[in-house]
Design goal:
Helix 11 crosses helix 14. 30% of the residues lie in helices and 26% in strands. The protein folds into four domains: 99 residues, Beta Barrel (OB fold (Dihydrolipoamide Acetyltransferase, E2P)), CATH 2.40.50; 80 residues, OB fold (Dihydrolipoamide Acetyltransferase, E2P) (Beta Barrel); 47 residues, Dihydrolipoamide Transferase (Irregular), CATH 4.10.320; 216 residues, Chloramphenicol acetyltransferase-like domain (Chloramphenicol Acetyltransferase). The protein is an alpha+beta fold and 562 residues long. A hairpin with a 2-residue loop joins strand 27 and strand 28.
Length: 562
């Protein structure tokens, strides 16, 4: 029996996936465990595996197209199996896993179709009530069981009231009301299951005709009355256009004098021109008063301006102009406007969404500090003479950050809505720029690792990130993030906090400048760092104390080795 293959959720933040490439084609035989396609998620390109034996009967998504989670992308089944009914179900927004859901005879199906075709579209817009459907309470949930109803039909409810307890595949959770009103109808008994988005209750104004609302929903779900509705809307549009035409014919035509005023796009000094024509004329330096309009009532349009050739001034007017001031001949620069539109990658979409949420949800404040890196530069030179892997300044910053977080646990925290999570472990995220956006692999327990260990892990992560080889476990669990743009010549910048962290450190490049030492100006090497803080979690004094500790460790780097 044929089964649909849906887009799986391959990462914690994934909302849709792009089919990078199909490794099979329609008609191919596949076994459980075979790789069907490569899917580009928001963080990496991953393999889509088959969980069934059979033949690929249908591929519904082209390479390069994006589809949301749980959308049908292909159908697998037995060779020669008829999947017409299943395809229709998928096209109508279905996509159940089995193609033989109904055993109805063809005559019964035809009878139902004719009934649906003749059925009038039910208009429930006047019913002051809302359907309550089964929400998706976990990423793997397909249906929910009503463990218990905490309200009964006829009860008054307010937004925020708990209506029922729902048992999912992972836990028992509370179903909350989002509107004020009366619980008019309960459609699922305690102990019974309902699929995702299935109607379980109705809340609305007391006495509202909820049965009409349920019938309209049922009709809409089955597709009944849609054609009739379209035909009806077309008739309404036809009538409205006819009435417009009638009203237009009844309206008297403007007098000849008014029509003459609009000749050549001008009316008593006013120039009639399309907005685009005005813009082109302005860009080209053309006086619209000299342009003849070819549009309705002499209106000047785009082609009139583009084809306009300035008239030569008479000798007399030229003489008058030259007598007052010398004419300046400004050459016309003609260019072609063009642009290219590029599809937004899954990674870029997720980066945009997560950082927008962070920027506009978390109240950011910034603390900047200068750090003298003279001793750090000397120490790095010495360490690299002995280290099995080359140590970078970024590795030293990560190690110093980890040691500072151990001393300032409030900075190593997360905002959880109704509580603040103080992390006892130190997992430092390392922002890595790739072509499609930004990845943040995580160096776990960074405070317990040596500099050479951190350096080796950071280099491995950077390589994997550029080759799209990172796995979900590599980018999850950060408690603090470091973003370094110093290698690009950036002296100072501010970074947007990377959720769920409370802070992120923006690291600039090391710049040689004049510093005061023992009362004298001497050359020194300075690095600026800026700490972005979520003010809901970290206060200014806490953030400043963290930076002071970081500054002390990097200005005397022997301390981070202890």
């Amino acid at each position: 029996m044929a089964e649909v293959i849906k887009m799986p959720k391959m990462s914690d933040t994934m909302e849709e996936g792009v089919i990078a490439s199909w490794l099979v084609k329609e008609g191919d035989e596949v076994s459980s465990g075979d790789i069907l396609a490569e899917v580009e998620t928001d963080k990496a390109t991953m393999e889509l595996e088959s969980y069934e034996d059979g033949v690929i009967l249908h591929i519904g998504i082209k390479e390069g197209d994006a589809v949301p989670i749980d959308s049908v992308i292909a159908i697998i089944g037995e060779k020669g199996e008829n999947i017409d009914d299943l395809l229709k179900e998928v096209e109508n927004g279905g996509g159940s896993d089995k193609s033989d859901k109904s055993d109805e005879s063809s005559s019964e199906k035809e009878e139902k179709k004719s009934e649906q075709g003749s059925e009038e579209q039910i208009d429930a817009s006047d019913v002051n009530a809302s359907l309550i459907t089964m929400p998706k309470m976990s990423d793997t949930m397909e249906e929910g069981v009503i463990a218990s109803w905490l309200k009964k039909e006829g009860d008054k409810v307010e937004a925020g009231d708990i209506l029922a307890e729902v048992e999912t595949d992972k836990a028992t959770m509370e179903l909350e009301a989002y509107e004020d009103g009366t619980l008019l109808y309960i459609g699922i008994k305690e102990g019974d299951a309902a699929p995702i988005d299935g109607v379980i209750a109705v809340v609305g104004e007391e006495g509202a005709d909820y049965k009409k609302l349920l019938k309209a929903h049922e009709q809409k779900s089955s597709g009944g009355g849609e054609k009739k509705k379209e035909a009806k809307s077309e008739k309404v549009e036809d009538k409205s256009s006819e009435s417009k035409a009638d009203s237009g014919s009844a309206k008297p035509s403007p007098p000849a004098e008014a029509a003459n005023k609009q000749k050549n796009g001008k009316d008593s000094g006013r120039i009639f021109a399309s907005p685009l024509a005005k813009k082109i004329a302005k860009d080209k330096g053309i006086d619209l008063a000299e342009v003849e309009g070819s549009g309705g009532n002499g209106r000047i349009i785009k082609s009139d301006v583009e084809n306009f050739t300035p008239k030569q001034k008479s000798q007399e007017s030229v003489k008058q102009d030259s007598s007052s001031e010398k004419a300046i001949n400004i050459p016309q620069v003609v260019g072609e406007e063009s642009y290219e539109e590029v599809k937004v990658s899954q990674m870029r979409k997720t980066v945009a969404k997560r950082l927008s949420e962070s920027k506009f949800t978390a109240p950011h404040f910034y603390v900047t500090m200068e750090i003298n890196m003279d001793k750090a530069m000397e120490a790095r030179k010495s360490i690299n003479e002995m280290s099995p892997v080359k140590i970078s300044f970024n590795d030293m910053v990560i190690k110093a950050v980890a040691a500072s977080l151990r001393q300032h646990p409030k900075v190593n925290s997360s905002w959880m809505g109704d509580k603040i999570r103080r992390n006892n472990h130190v997992h430092v995220g390392m922002a890595v720029a790739v072509e499609e956006g930004l990845l943040v692999p995580v160096i776990r327990f960074a405070d317990n690792k040596s500099l050479s260990h951190i350096a080796a892990e950071a280099k491995d992560f950077a390589k994997k990130a550029k080759n799209k080889e990172l796995e979900p476990k590599d980018w999850e669990g950060n408690t603090f993030t470091v973003s370094n743009l110093g290698m690009f010549g950036v002296e100072e910048f501010t970074a947007i906090i990377n959720p769920p962290d409370a802070c992120i450190l923006a690291v600039g490049g090391i710049k040689q400048t004049a510093v005061v030492k023992d009362g004298q100006l001497v050359p020194g090497n300075v690095m600026k760092v800026t700490l972005s803080c979520d003010h809901r979690v970290v206060d200014g004094a806490v953030g400043s104390a963290f930076l002071q500790t970081l500054k002390g460790l990097l200005e005397d780097p022997v301390r981070i080795l202890i």
